[in-house]
Amino acid sequence: MDSFNLKKFARDAGSALSRVVQRTEEKLGTSERTELDAHFENLAERSDATKLWTEKLLSDTEAVLTPNPGNRVEDFLFDKIDKKRPNRLSNLEYLGLDMIDAGNEFGPGTAYGSALLKVGQCEQKLGTIERDFIASANHSIVAPFRKFLEGEMKTIMRERGLLENKRLDLDACKNRVRKARSMLGTQNKEGPSPEIVLRQAEQDLRVAQAEFDRQAEITKLLLEGIGSSHASHLRCLHEFVESQVRYYAQCHQLMQELQRDLASDRKPSPMLRINSEEVELVPPENSSSNSPPN
């Protein structure tokens, strides 16, 4: 490791230790803390709420679209390694396949077998419609929400972390200035005089203040961009609702058609009117064996 890297390592280690000390003293109440203005704090609170609720809504939406948690984990892993997701059948499609197999087993010529075939084919169509809806919902809301969390929100959190470090450095410098001022007028037998120590501490404070102010401005601009993200998320929400409207309308239409088709297969039994009352005529079993001989 060359001398430059050694100096950088030592400087970074010193800064980290100074921040730990500063944070500890703040928790103990023995050190002051620089507070940001109310507008910045409001922006930060809105950012935190946006992050929290976007994560919850994303998780809830994914659970609706892919109820099986194992499948969700599998899809997440495939997305991470940038590979195509497996083409798995949905529960509706499995139901449709089994109904079709059962209908063929019982015979398409029987009432039950014929109905199973028709319902099974309908369930398969519902599965296809559901697949299209899931793809549309992923495009309209899941992908944009995830992109926001992994992009813009991650950048905001990183810059806020940097701002917190700059704030700790600033407050540590303020403490050193206060300590150096308290030492004025005393005799320092070893090392630089209190005046020199104070001048250096004040110089460090000016640098730390400038870095803090610059980082605060960068972070504030990013936090103000949350409003644009809300507008974008609103558009995503509208698109998601439109996808749901199409999905449920297609499902409703398909089920109505199936219901009419099944109803047309049900033939009414002949009725006999006796004393103004209708009585269903049911042919007796084995009528040929019970008929009187010629």
UniProtKB/TrEMBL annotation:
Annotated region described as Disordered, given as residue ranges: 264-294
Alphabetical UniProt keywords: Coiled coil
Coiled coil: 163-218
One Pfam family here: BAR
CDD domains membership: BAR_Endophilin_B (cd07594)
Residues that span the membrane, as ranges: none
Stored InterPro entries: AH/BAR_dom_sf (IPR027267), BAR_dom (IPR004148)
Domain BAR: 25-271
Protein name, entry field: Endophilin-B1
